[in-house]
Amino acid sequence: MCKTDMTDQDFVAHSVCDDPNINLLMTNTDYFVSLYETLHRKMPFFGSGIEESLERIPEEHLHRPVGHRTIAQLLAHMIAWREDLIKRLHELPREKIEINSPEDWPDATGKTKADFLRAFADTKVELQKGLEKYDVSKMYDLVHPDYDYINVNILEGGAQHDIYHIGQVNMLAAILRELEEAKE
Q1: What are the tens digits of pLDDT across the range 109-159?
Q2: 45 near 38, Cβ under 8 Å?
Q3: Long-range CB pairs of 145-150, under 8 A, 24+ apart, other chains included
């Protein structure tokens, strides 16, 4: 039986678990490395991996809007947040990304599928390098005194963010495919 207690005073999580395998997950970064491997492989548990998803999308669909977004905008947004996490992991200076700002939703004009595939491959490598050297003793520290979440939330959140948005990418791709088929 395992549980994680969060104290009201300092928001530091404490793992209480009889299973040594679970405690091992909570004290090293292999789990997070495996999350990013999962995002990039074919047929992960949540649907389609990043490259698998992009391979099926025709180049001309990348910049076609569905509602107020394009697939290219979603991909650029994912890359922006991956780059932010990479800077955190490598302890590099970074600007705070304001929600709905140009940094949050970078201009994707002119970006090709090859550009995005390369960016995802590069950020995967940099995320894994950052995770390999990450000081796990900081995993349960607050991200910042102004926020009530800890570093492990950021590490998990990066993968969750990718899963969420690759789902949106696949939904937009399906809508565009249906629109294309309806024209024929």
Answers
A1: 999 999 999 999 999 999 999 999 999 889 889 988 888 989 999 999 999
A2: yes
A3: 148/11, 149/11, 150/11, 150/12, 150/13
- Name the more confident of 24 and 179: 179
Q: Using an 8 Å Cβ cutoff, are 26 and 6 in contact? A: no
Both tokens of 160, joined, read: 């969750």
Q: What is the DSSP letter of 45?
A: T
Residue 85 has pLDDT above 90, yes or no: yes
The residues near 74 (Cβ < 8 Å, ≥ 6 apart) are 165, 168, 169, 172
Domains of the chain are 28-183 (1.20.120.450)
Take residue 97 and report the two structure tokens written for it: 């990304």
Contact indicator for 46, 167 with CB cutoff of 8 Å: yes
